[in-house]
Design brief:
The protein is an alpha/beta fold. It folds into two domains: 445 residues, 3-Layer(aba) Sandwich (Rossmann fold); 117 residues, GMP Synthetase, Chain A, domain 3 (2-Layer Sandwich). The protein is built from 18 helices and 28 strands. Helix 5 links the parallel strand 3 and strand 4. Bound molecules: 5'-O-[(S)-butoxy(hydroxy)phosphoryl]adenosine (WT7). 5'-O-[(S)-butoxy(hydroxy)phosphoryl]adenosine binds next to helix 10, strand 14, strand 22 and strand 23.
Length: 591
């Protein structure tokens, strides 16, 4: 069964959606989270469900045949899914999960590229009361394995190719994984291996389903993120997060009912879920999803042809657009574009100035994290942009620059002082736990402050400026990578005695991963071995996580207890003056 054979959903009384009349000034003054909650449709008896708010409420409101998802395939295909289509398909998926024995709280992992099945599985999982856990398709077998084990995935949705390459060999280690739904399998499936054809299974189910039974604090989303030490952490989010998704979509990204909206982030990461699925749908927009990878001309063509109104992208992509030059834009009319925003890494002032000059309007930087679930700090539509600044906290968000005290408390620092960016708890999309790791979760808080692990400063006018990370994680092309995963993979090679990983500044990716390696006795540091090690890491970790550069050293700098001092490696790489070394050795937050 394929999309073309899908039964058409009935067209219910369509009316032209009215644009919401937004009063941003009133939102700033009269803000309360209760009022934000009251904008949602909600469910009987105080229930709440992200997928219901994203899809079914619009069907009920008379927008059933409006396009919810416009999918652009990498080979030129194009498919439209109305809100009614998405409602029916996600109902089918929820019904399917129940038939497969999935119970509320079970984790459903999805490892695919940006294909429609991902969106259906995400929404259907939420309707069934199960937990949606996306896995980035460019991860290699090792990061996939770690996440499948840690999430205790009960069902996996993937493609035959990704299954063969990244999952098959490790199935024995995954006792909780009972069924694997393959999106491109057309045959009957195989009960013994648990491999089932996604579409055939979906079409066996009814498109009808009663309202979801989830409560506001039920676990809904699981997003893996990295710290300095240990395996990746699974940040737990609940259905209440949709209050913040909807509100921030509107306040920070200016998404309005009926907008055409394009978020270029992959749903394998939190941005691609919070702002690539939930926030725009919860505001009644049409999602544009492009399956293909970055290409400057293709992107400008999409902006023009799809008449994109709101565009959310990342600094790495913006720098690549700058590199492609105005010629890639030639002849394109971006007249429909009303608002452009960026997230994930520092947005350099030149990029803001360039966008004003070349695209005719500025990119608006926004700041948040996997743990915060939604945008916290932003250059909102009404705010005067200071290029290089992340903007100001959104309504309902209190941010401060703090210094941790030894007694576990924090001191709030004056303006123009560098310190750790902290947020006062109390917003609905704050993560509720690191799955199975509550100690690590507790360490993120001091009193009622959540500590972000980012260094920043606030100026006298309340604008926040990013300074760097307080720990050793690195951002490469917008992806957060922890040293533990990379170093552990390299340590599995027989020649490797010690590894330290750092982020090395890069014109486009912000940073690239560079590994320093000390070899075991008997191994020669030469170019052949260097290439072999990089290839070894790529095979295990995938191209998004593997180091791009590798340098041999006789010894790696270590503390007396044997911990590798990545900060010294970084200082050496960046040619920092020796005087700075003492400060570089200072305690890094090990989250
Ligand atoms: C880290 C969070 C991007 C949200 C989803 C990814 C860095 C995020 C900015 C920005 C400078 C930024 C921070 C943050 N970051 N936005 N506007 N300027 N740095 O979340 O993968 O958990 O990454 O991304 O270091 O802590 P994530």
């Amino acid at each position: 069964m394929t999309w073309t054979t899908l039964p058409k959903m009935p067209e219910s009384g369509e009316s032209t959606p009215q644009l919401l009349n937004l009063d941003h000034a009133a939102m700033q003054t009269g803000f309360s989270w209760d009022a934000a909650r009251a904008e949602l449709a909600g469910l009987p008896n105080g229930g709440l469900n992200i997928a219901f708010e994203a899809v079914d409420r619009w069907v009920a409101a008379g927008f059933a045949s409006r396009t919810a998802l416009r999918w652009l395939g990498k080979n030129g295909e194009r498919r439209e899914f109305s809100y009614a289509d998405l409602a029916g398909l996600s109902n089918r998926f929820a019904n399917l999960l129940e038939r497969l024995g999935v119970v509320p709280g079970d984790r459903i992992c999805v490892l695919t590229g940006r294909i429609p099945e991902l969106y259906i599985a995400a929404l259907g999982t939420l309707k069934a009361g199960a937990v949606f856990c996306p896995l980035f398709s460019a991860f290699g077998p090792e990061p996939v394995r770690v996440r499948l084990v840690k999430s205790q995935a009960r069902v996996l949705v993937t493609t035959t190719l990704l299954y063969e390459r990244k999952v098959r060999a490790q199935c024995d280690e995954l006792p909780d994984l009972r069924q694997i739904l393959l999106t491109d399998l057309l045959a009957d499936g195989d009960d013994a291996t648990g491999l089932l054809p996604f579409h055939e299974q979906l079409m066996m189910e009814s498109a009808e389903r009663g309202p979801p039974a989830t409560r506001p604090e039920d676990m809904a989303l699981l997003h893996f993120t990295s710290g300095t030490t240990g395996t990746p952490k699974g940040a737990v989010h609940v259905h209440n997060a949709v209050i913040a998704h909807r509100l921030t979509g509107r306040l920070a990204l200016d998404v309005r009912l009926g907008d055409i909206y394009w978020c270029t982030a992959d749903p394998g990461w939190v941005t691609g879920v919070s702002y690539g699925i939930i926030a725009p749908l919860a505001n009644g927009a049409t999602l544009v999803v492009d399956e293909a990878e970055f290409d400057a001309r293709r992107w400008y063509a999409i902006l023009e042809q799809e008449q994109v109104n709101v565009w959310y992208t990342a600094p790495t992509a913006i720098r690549m657009l700058m590199k492609a030059g105005a010629v890639a834009l030639q002849g394109r009319d971006l007249g429909a574009l009303r608002f452009m925003a960026s997230v994930g890494e520092p947005l350099n002032p030149e990029a803001v100035i360039w966008s004003r000059e070349v695209l005719g309007q500025p990119f608006h930087d926004t700041w948040w994290q996997t743990e915060t679930g939604a945008i916290m700090i932003a250059n909102t539509p009404g705010l005067a942009i200071r290029p290089g600044s992340m903007g100001q906290p959104l309504p309902g968000i209190e941010a401060a620059i703090v210094r941790r005290r030894t007694d576990g408390g924090v001191d709030i620092l004056a303006s123009d002082t560098e310190g750790e960016l902290a947020l006062r708890v109390g917003w609905p999309s704050l993560f509720r736990d690191y799955l199975g790791d509550s100690d690590r979760y507790q360490r993120c808080f001091a009193g009622d402050w959540y500590l972000s692990g980012d260094l920043a400063r606030r100026d006298a006018d309340g604008y926040f400026w990013f300074v760097g990370r307080a720990d050793d994680v690195i951002k490469t092309a917008g992806h957060l990578i922890g040293p533990f995963e990379v170093e552990s993979a390299l340590l599995e090679h027989p020649a490797v005695a010690e590894v330290g990983m750092i982020g090395k500044p890069d014109e486009f990716a912000g940073q690239i991963i560079k590994a320093f390696v000390a070899l075991k006795p008997g191994y020669e540091p030469n170019d052949g071995l260097r290439k072999e090690l990089i290839g070894f890491a790529r095979t295990r970790l995938g191209p998004a996580v593997a180091p791009r550069e590798l340098e041999f050293m006789v010894d790696l700098p270590k503390t007396r207890s044997g911990k590798i001092l990545r900060r010294l490696l970084r200082a050496r790489e960046l040619d920092l003056p020796l005087g700075d070394l003492s400060t570089l050795e200072g305690d890094a937050a090990e989250s």
